[in-house]
Amino acid sequence: VSSAVCCRLTPLQKANVVNMFQTKTGSTALAIGDGANDVSMIQEGRVGVGIMGLEGAQAALAADYAIPRFKHLKRLCCVHGRYAVVRNSLCVEYSFYKNMIIALVQFIYSNYCGYSGQTLMDGWLLAFFNFAFTSIPPLFLGVFDKDVNEDALMNEPDMFPGLADGLYFDGPTLARWFGEAIIHSIVLFYVTYPTMLAGDVQQFRVMDINMFGTVLMTSTIYLVLTKNVLHIRYWQAVQVGGFVFSYLLYLVFVLIYAAIPSLFGDTIFYYSTYTLMEDPKYWMYLFLFVIGMLFPIDVAAMFVQRQLFPTIVDTMQDRYESSN
Predict the structure, then answer these.
(1) DSSP 3-state assignment of 139?
(2) pTM of the model
(3) In what order do the strands lie in the sheet with 65-67?
(4) Which domains are assigned to the chain?
(5) Phi, psi at residue 68, to the nearest 5°?
(6) pLDDT tens digits along 245-302
């Protein structure tokens, strides 16, 4: 049985029908109603939609979402529902990615410090990594991003079923994000580590563990921020401003932090950033990590996938962009 029509049911019977469907199939039921006798059914469904109509507002008040007319259900599901899935999926995957990189870099370093618990990166930089330096891009990704034009979603019913199959949040997609995080963290550490062993930053200046950690933290932050740029499909002025602010925030923070002789008795970070910025190798690492890792791998993979193995999303993007 793929569908059922029930009529003349009591509120409890309506709720039981929804409960039975969800229990037996394991699927998510969207319960929609417009009156007080639909409240039990709406609350039983994993997604409840209430229609504000002549029978009062009880259904709308009890629902997860409220719409003025039944005709608005299509836009609620096909546009807003799809965008919510797409945005949440990318936001979660990106958050996994950036946290895996920062954790794996320190995990690799623990093998070289005898698993003593020595922190590779400065504590203040670690504290602000998620809180400030890389917090805005995933937030904007989860609020403003759109993978396909709204007109395409309303006019192409084939765009909707793919979400139930894990179009953006399935095993292969997560494996790709995790794999990239592992590769990037290994390259970040082992390309910078030889310079740490050589010990020289400039003549008469020695690279210590604090400078080593700062190089890795700076490279990681700008790599993570630039990685997010590649996955934005719908740019707005607020997103551009957010990325520019994120790029500048870290730079301004470390410049001010390095100018303070002593912070709560800690003097190890004093002037270290200025010493690094005077060394051409510091800028070479930034360019190498951000451009060298993302563009030959990520950009090339995205280009090959779009040209040789286009998805229905790619097809609709090309069709509606060319028509507009």
Answers:
(1) helix
(2) 0.84
(3) 30-33, 47-51, 65-67
(4) 11-68 (3.40.50.1000), 77-323 (no CATH)
(5) -75, -30
(6) 999 999 999 999 888 887 665 667 778 888 888 878 788 878 877 887 777 778 888 8
